[in-house]
Design goal:
Length: about 425
């Protein structure tokens, strides 16, 4: 099962968690107090770059019957769509730039270049996902309603298609995000009526119509005789953007170490424990400046989940302080190469196509599903939390996980 007691899982005392929360609050205040011209210049330059790439791509595709023009135009358009989707749309709608009081770059007015209506995305993502991150049954991003990504999700016969659904979702990622707000699971449970779903579908249909008309009718028509090659270029640019967005999001949410939680954990959750849940439920991947930029700085998914409304260009410097806190409180800082994080995510998706009875390990002690009970099934595990009186060092989750690898499984009574 997923984590029900985050204090016990993290191997921290209540005082430790309060102190950790206070230090993260200090990081937030420091960044808020230092926002200024440097940050404003960054977002304005990003917008300018995105618009130049989009305009250049569209102009080049007027000659899309020539192979070099098709390739160059498609590449520029795909980059423009990636930047608009990841570093602008996603982050602007989180309110990261609301402090500037610029109506053009404000979460209340931005409509991004994708099929998902911003009003629906801000509810399903900003509110539901970021408030209930990785809480099974509350956060619909846990599997997106079609993938089984934790053993806490009951296996049903149709889960055997997990790898196929994964490929379909990656290919049509913007469409999956658009339909995400329908909350299919709630409809299945009867918590949401078909009348409500149809109302949401009408809003989605309006946005989809605008996007389809722009990419697959208006711009191809402007190319005159070259409309067919422009149409394929637009479709290819959207496909590239879909695969990239999917890759970034999955690498931040489903590698080993991105833990899941039960609703029981929410009963006593305060701000420090919310912070701790974000740290344990997210994963980063290593990236240089270019990859960080193209990922919308979501290579720092841990920092984004801690501070979703702080400017994304600050995540790299925030990460230095967050990592230091992980060292101080003996907590894991889940990161790895992009390839490693995705291969772990895909392994989970492929493995959980099968029922639990056919899987190794247990529902409390598996790479993709863990709870505080994982420590109880191992013999010789120390149970004290906080500062170790013998060494004077804090003993937290990082140390407990190291001991877990060495401890034999406890024999049944």
């Amino acid at each position: 099962m997923a984590i029900t007691d985050i204090d016990a899982y993290a191997h921290l005392t209540a005082a430790d968690i309060e102190a950790l929360g206070a230090e993260l609050d200090t990081i937030r205040r420091d960044v808020e107090d230092s926002r200024g011209e440097r940050d404003a210049r960054y977002v304005h330059r990003t917008i300018a770059l995105q618009r130049v790439l989009a305009a250049g791509g569209r102009a080049t595709l007027l000659f899309s019957n020539r192979r070099i023009a098709w390739c160059a135009g498609t590449a520029m358009l795909a980059l423009a769509k990636i930047i608009e989707n990841m570093e602008l749309g996603h982050n602007v709608m989180h309110g990261q730039w609301d402090w500037m009081n610029d109506p053009e770059i404000h979460s209340s007015s931005w409509e991004w270049d994708t099929t998902c209506p911003s009003v629906q995305w801000k509810h399903s993502h900003n509110f539901v996902h970021h408030k209930y991150t990785n809480v099974v049954g509350m956060d619909d991003d846990v599997g997106y309603g079609i993938l089984r990504v934790t053993r806490d999700q009951r296996w049903e016969w149709w889960n055997i298609g997990n790898p196929v659904y994964n490929l379909i979702l990656a290919t049509a990622f913007e469409w999956g995000v658009a339909l995400h707000h329908l909350e299919v699971e709630k409809i299945r449970r009867g918590d949401k009526t078909w009348r409500q779903a149809l109302r949401d579908l009408r809003i989605i249909g309006t946005k989809v119509g605008k996007q389809a008309a722009k990419d697959y009718l208006i711009y191809p028509a402007l190319s005159g005789r070259n409309w067919k090659t422009t149409l394929t270029a637009d479709a290819t640019a959207n496909l590239i953007r879909n695969y990239w967005a999917y890759l970034v999001i999955f690498c931040g949410h489903f590698p080993d170490g991105a833990e899941k939680f039960t609703t029981a954990e929410l009963a006593e959750e305060d701000q420090p424990r919310w912070y701790l849940r974000q740290m344990l439920g997210s994963a980063n991947f290593r990236a240089g400046p270019l990859m960080r930029f193209l990922s919308g700085n979501l290579s720092h998914q841990i920092e984004h989940h801690l501070f979703p409304d702080l400017p994304s260009n600050r995540y790299e410097e925030i990460a230095v302080r967050v990592r230091a806190l992980c060292d101080k409180y003996d907590l894991p800082y889940t990161t790895g190469s992009l390839a490693r994080q995705y291969l772990q995510s895909f392994r989970t998706i492929a493995k959980l196509a099968l029922p639990n009875a056919l899987l190794a390990a247990t529902a409390d002690d598996a790479p993709e599903t863990a709870s505080e009970l994982r420590f109880a099934v191992r013999a010789g595990m120390q149970e004290h939390f906080g500062v170790d009186p013998a060494t004077g060092k804090r003993r937290g989750l990082r140390t407990a996980l190291r001991e877990l690898k060495r401890a034999p499984i406890r024999a049944a009574a």
